[in-house]
Design a protein that fits this description.
The complex is a heterodimer of chains A (about 170) and B (about 475).
Chain A lengths: L9 E5 L5 E5 H4 L3 H9 L8 E2 L5 H19 L4 H14 L3 H14 L2 H15 L4 H8 L7 H10 L11
Parallel strand pairs in A: 1-3
Antiparallel strand pairs in A: 1-2
Helix pairs in contact in A: 3-4, 3-5, 5-6
Chain B lengths: L1 H16 L8 H5 L4 H8 L1 H5 L3 H6 L16 E5 L1 H4 L4 H18 L6 E6 L5 H12 L5 E6 L3 E2 L2 H8 L6 E6 L4 E5 L4 E2 L5 E5 L1 E5 L5 E3 L5 E5 L2 E3 L3 E5 L5 E6 L11 E5 L5 E6 L6 E4 L9 E5 L9 H13 L5 E5 L19 E8 H8 L7 E8 L3 H6 L5 H5 L3 E7 L3 H13 L5 E6 L6 H12 L9 E6 L7
Helix pairs in contact in B: 7-8, 8-9
The chains are: A mainly alpha (about 170), B alpha/beta (about 475).
Chain lengths: ~170, ~475
C-alpha cells in the first residue's frame, strides 16, 4: 500500500472477449468506474477486473485516447495544437456505429473527458441533419402518426428552417 | 443539466448493485435488447445542448422526446433567417411564436440567453422577450440588434436589479438602445462583465449611483447619459475600464460627469474622438497606482475647445501614478505640458504623433522611465531645441529601451536619435521601425549606415533598424 508510488502500479482489465489489458494506475484513474472498483476493494486488486459491457475494440480506443492525452498534458506547451489534431483524427477514424459503441463504453467506464469529446463529435455529425437522419442514427422509433408529426412541426415551424429535408 | 444527472444516477445505481444487468434501470427495462434506446438515454445532453433550434427539433424524434428539449439552459435566438425569408409576414409570426414558446416552455432557470435582432419587431414583443428571459435568472445576457430598442420600465427595472446576471452585453449597430435607469438605487449583485455599445441611458435622478460590487470589467462604446449631472459607479473590484467615444457628442444637453469608485484599477483605456465631453473621475486617486493607462485623443486641431485640454489634463493628473502610459494625440496638451503632473512610477511610455518639444518636456516628468516608444515624431526647430535641451534624469539613469516607429529617415529623426544615443548612459537598445511605406530593403541599409556613424554614450547599446509590422498595436 504505502511506499509504492501510484504511477508504478499496473491494473489488468478484461474485456468481454476475454482480452487482457495492462493499464497504468494513473490512466486507470480516468476510468472512474474502474477506479471506484479499486477503491472499494481496498486497493487490493491482483486479479484482472472484468468489464462485461466493454469490447476489446472500444477499450483499446479508449486507452489509446487516454494515453495520448496524458502525454500531451504532461509535455511541453505546443501540445494544444497536437492534441487538437489527434482529436480530429480520432473522431474521423470511426464509423457512426463505432462512434456509438465507443460512447456506450466510455459511458459505462465513466471517462468524463472522452465522453464530452464524443458527445461533441456526435453533435457535429447530426448538426442540421433531418429528423429522419437523427432517428436512424440513434435507432429511435418514430411513434408519431403523420398528422401528429405535421402538427408538431407546425407549432415549432421556426426550428425547422434551414434543415435538410427528410 | 437535469436529464444528464438523471441518467448518470441510473448508471451509478447499476454500478452499486455490482451487476451488469439492467434490473434497476427502468428506462432500459422498457426496451429490452434495444440498443438504440440505450444510446439515446445517454445522449440527451449532446443533442440538446446544441443550438436552440436543434434542441427544439428533437421534440419530433419520438413521443419520448417531446419534452426533453425543455431542459436546455441556454437560449440563443437569431432572427437572421427571417430577413431572407420567402414570405415575410408568415416568417415574422412564426419567429414570434417560437420566441414565446421557448421562453414559456423551457426551464424556470436559464444560464445563458442571447437574442440577435436584424429585422423589425414590435417593441412590445422585444421587451416581453427580454423581460421573460430576465425572469429566468440568467447568468449571461447578450443582446445584439440592428434595430432600435427601447426598454420598457419593467424590463429596465428587471435588468438593473438582477441578482443573477454575471455578464451583460448589449451591442447595437446603426441605432441606439434607449434605457431609462430606474430611480432607486441600482444594484447588480453578481455582475462581473459589462459591455455596452451604443446605449443611451437616461435617468430622472440627476446623480444616479450604480452599485456593481463584483464588476471586474466595463467596456463601453459610444454610450451616452442624458439628463444626468453625474453618474457614480460603485465598483470596488473593478480592474478594467475601456471607454470609446467615436462621435462628438457635445451637442447633447450639457456635459456629464462619470465617477468610478474603484479600489484597485489595473487597466484604464479611453479612446475619445468626441472631445472629452464627459469627465471621467476616479474617486480614489490612489486606485490607479501601478495600473496601465491608455489615452487616445484625436489629432490636435487649432481652435479645439479648451475643455479638451482641461479634460485631458485632469485625466492625466489622476493617472500620475501609473506604471504604463500610452498616449495618442498628446499635442492637445502642447500648451499645458508644464501643468502635467510628475509621473513618479512610470516605467513604460508610448506616444503617438508627438512633437519633439512635447517629448522632451514630458521626459522631464518621468524620472524612472525604462522604456520609451515614439510613433511619428514631428519637429520643426529640432536643432535649436536639442542644443539647449536639458538632459532628463531618466535618460541618465533608467532609460534602457527606446523605439522609434513609423520612421522615414528624416533629418529630425536622426538628430533625436543622436540625442538619445549620446546622452543615454544606460541605453541598452535603440530601435527604429521603418514606416510601412518603405518597402525597399535599401531604405533599411541606408538608415543603418547613417545611424552607425553616430556616437554612443554606452558602447554596448544595440542599434537596430526593423521593418514595420503593418498591424502594429495602435
Amino acid at each position: 500500500m504505502s511506499g509504492i508510488s501510484d504511477t508504478e502500479r499496473m491494473i489488468t482489465l478484461k474485456t468481454v472477449e476475454g482480452t487482457l489489458f495492462d493499464v497504468k494506475s494513473s490512466i486507470a484513474k480516468d476510468l472512474k468506474t474502474v477506479q471506484a472498483f479499486i477503491d472499494d476493494s481496498d486497493d487490493d486488486v491482483t486479479s484482472p477486473i472484468p468489464l462485461p459491457n466493454v469490447f476489446t475494440r472500444e477499450l483499446s480506443r479508449i486507452l489509446d485516447y487516454l494515453n495520448n492525452h496524458h502525454r500531451f498534458r504532461s509535455g511541453i506547451e505546443k501540445a494544444d495544437e497536437e492534441m487538437a489534431r489527434y482529436d480530429a483524427e480520432f473522431a474521423k477514424s470511426m464509423s457512426h456505429e463505432e462512434l456509438k459503441a465507443l460512447i456506450l463504453a466510455a459511458n459505462y467506464l465513466n471517462v468524463k473527458d472522452l465522453l464530452e469529446f464524443l458527445n461533441q463529435t456526435v453533435a457535429d455529425v447530426i448538426q442540421n441533419k433531418s429528423v429522419e437522419f437523427v432517428r436512424n442514427f440513434f435507432g429511435i422509433e418514430n411513434d408519431y402518426t403523420p398528422e401528429e408529426e405535421e402538427k408538431l412541426r407546425n407549432e415549432n415551424e421556426w426550428a425547422f428552417n434551414g434543415v435538410e429535408q427528410d | 443539466m437535469e436529464s444528464a444527472n438523471h441518467f448518470e444516477r441510473k448508471l451509478s445505481q447499476i454500478m452499486d448493485s455490482g451487476s451488469s444487468t439492467h434490473e434497476n434501470d427502468p428506462v432500459k427495462r422498457q426496451k429490452e435488447n434495444n440498443e438504440g434506446e440505450d444510446r439515446i438515454s445517454k445522449l440527451p445532453d449532446c443533442i440538446i445542448s446544441r443550438t436552440t433550434k436543434e434542441a427544439v427539433r428533437t421534440s419530433v424524434l419520438s413521443k419520448e422526446w417531446i419534452n426533453n428539449w425543455r431542459s436546455i439552459t441556454s437560449l440563443h435566438l437569431d432572427d437572421i433567417d427571417m430577413v431572407y425569408g420567402r414570405t415575410k409576414h408568415i416568417e415574422h409570426e412564426c419567429f414570434e411564436r417560437f420566441m414565446y414558446r421557448s421562453l414559456l416552455l423551457t426551464n424556470s432557470r436559464l444560464d445563458n440567453f442571447s437574442l440577435s435582432i436584424h429585422d423589425h419587431h414590435d417593441m412590445f414583443n422585444l421587451n416581453e422577450w427580454i423581460y421573460g428571459a430576465l425572469r429566468k435568472f440568467p447568468k449571461k445576457l447578450c443582446i445584439k440588434s440592428q434595430r432600435k430598442l427601447s426598454f420598457a420600465f419593467s424590463t429596465a427595472h428587471s435588468l438593473f436589479t438582477s441578482q443573477s446576471l454575471q455578464e451583460l452585453e448589449i451591442y447595437m449597430s446603426y441605432c441606439y438602445a434607449n434605457i431609462t435607469v430606474p430611480r432607486s438605487r441600482v444594484h447588480l449583485g453578481q455582475l462581473k462583465f459589462l459591455t455596452l455599445h451604443e446605449v443611451k441611458f437616461s435617468c430622472s435622478d440627476k446623480d444616479p449611483e450604480l452599485s456593481l460590487p463584483l464588476l471586474q470589467k466595463i467596456k463601453t462604446v459610444n454610450c451616452i447619459w442624458l439628463g444626468v449631472r453625474c453618474v457614480t459607479f460603485n465598483v470596488p473590484l473593478l480592474e478594467t475600464i475601456d471607454i470609446t467615444q467615436h462621435t462628438n457628442s457635445s451637442w447633447l444637453e450639457g456635459n456629464c460627469k462619470i465617477k468610478f469608485r474603484a479600489l484597485h484599477l489595473k487597466e484604464f483605456c479611453l479612446c475619445d474622438y468626441g472631445y472629452l465631453s464627459s469627465y471621467l473621475t476616479m474617486i480614489d486617486p490612489s486606485s490607479a497606482q501601478n495600473a496601465s493607462a491608455t489615452l487616445i485623443l484625436p489629432p490636435y486641431e487649432r481652435g479645439v475647445s479648451s475643455t479638451v485640454e482641461h479634460g485631458a489634463l485632469e485625466l492625466l493628473k489622476q493617472f500620475s501614478q501609473v506604471r504604463y502610459l500610452k498616449f495618442g494625440g498628446p499635442d492637445v496638451l502642447a500648451q499645458e505640458v508644464i501643468l502635467l503632473p510628475e509621473f513618479g512610477m512610470l516605467r513604460h511610455l508610448e506616444l503617438d504623433s508627438v512633437t519633439g518639444e512635447f517629448l522632451l518636456a514630458l521626459l522631464l516628468k518621468t524620472p524612472i522611465l525604462n522604456t520609451l516608444v515614439v510613433e511619428r515624431l514631428k519637429s520643426e526647430y529640432y536643432k535649436a531645441l536639442l542644443k539647449s535641451a536639458v538632459v532628463p534624469d531618466c535618460l541618465r539613469h533608467t532609460l534602457q529601451v527606446v523605439n522609434f516607429r513609423d520612421v522615414c529617415g528624416d533629418k529630425h529623426e536622426l538628430h533625436f536619435a543622436k540625442f538619445f544615443m549620446e546622452k543615454g548612459s544606460v541605453l541598452k537598445r535603440m530601435s527604429f521601425s521603418l514606416s510601412h511605406l518603405f518597402v525597399k530593403s535599401e531604405a533599411i541599409e541606408e538608415l543603418e549606415q547613417k545611424l552607425s556613424g553616430l556616437k554612443k554614450c554606452l558602447t554596448s547599446t544595440i542599434v537596430e533598424v526593423l521593418k514595420e509590422d503593418y498591424y502594429n498595436s495602435w
